[in-house]
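Lab notebook, bench 4. The sequencing result for the construct came back, and we need a structural model before the next group meeting so we can plan mutations. Quick request posted to the team channel:

Model the 3D structure of this chain.
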Amino acid sequence: MKTDIKFKENTFVVKGYGAKDNLLNKLTDHRLSEMDVERPMINDNQVIVEVLYSGVCHSDIHQVNDDWKNTRYPCVPGHEIIGKIAKVGNKVTKFSEGDLVGVGCMIDSCQTCKPCQDNEEQFCAGPHGPTMTYNGYFNDPASDFNTFGGYSSHVVSSEEFLLRIPEKLDIKKAAPILCAGITTYLPLKQWNIKQGDKVAIVGIGGLGHMAVQLAKAMGAEVTAITTQEAKRKEALELGADHVLISENDEEMKKNAMNFNYILITIPYAFDVNPYVKLLAIRGSLVTVGLLGEYKEPLNNMEVAKLARQVGGSVIGGVKDTQEVLDFCAEHNIHPEVQMMKIEDINDAFEKIKKEKVRFRYVIDMKA
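Done. Here's the predicted structure in token form:
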């Protein structure tokens, strides 16, 4: 992909891959195509980042397809970004041109509300909420500019939302930590997973394979739960102590009331009730992959009778995202990735939907 920037009076134009509109999306299998991406010129506290590597998240597919009914077109996905700073605003002090940085799911927030002051920018209570890296409003909803993500040669971020990449991390593999990593790390941290806890991770894909490694590094006894017998070997190689096949009724019955904590990473509608039965007394179940309704209603009797908890979690703030990068560096945790070219993104989307990737695609923007 071309990496030159065409500067105009108040904007600049770069190359990217995106979905141009919803109608075209529905009429063609090739949902993403090369396009010019026009961005507003950066302000004093923003930077332009040249994208080196961009992870491919399942939520990118949901957004391109408008599955959550909130997509703004054109849509240029990508919120797992490793890049190099190409230009800094006049008041940027913490970073310089040429610095290696990460850009995750957000590029700005009001930075003054209580959640932002508490380092939880993902819950920003400002007038417009957090500014997402793509499919968000640039500065305010009245703006003509959508935010565009890492499937492009350059992205824009506020200085406060840049992440430092530890030297011990392989930058070709690190990008998924900025979404898959923080999305699974934060609930494990929030529910205080510790040495000896019996933890189950449901769904051994892009998020789940990170969760297995993170929970194991926290000292938990980790069980990977999957529908596929073929993933048993892979889960054990990731560090899981046990593997449970969820479609095996006998195995599920044997593990009733067995787990202190269950993290579910399934990205589509599913029946949560069989997993609730696996929780011990006062055990907790948290979903991070599903943004929508369960396939079957939650049986509150199963929750209440053993004082179980069922909750959810999304991404994390800047401080926690930096923390998970440092944690992964300390414990030599890397996502399992397959490198690809941006021109192959439509094929990659199809393989992700068919679960034919181990475990995360990363786009090499220079390939």
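Residues 269 and 295 are 5 Å apart (CA to CA).
Will bring this to the meeting.
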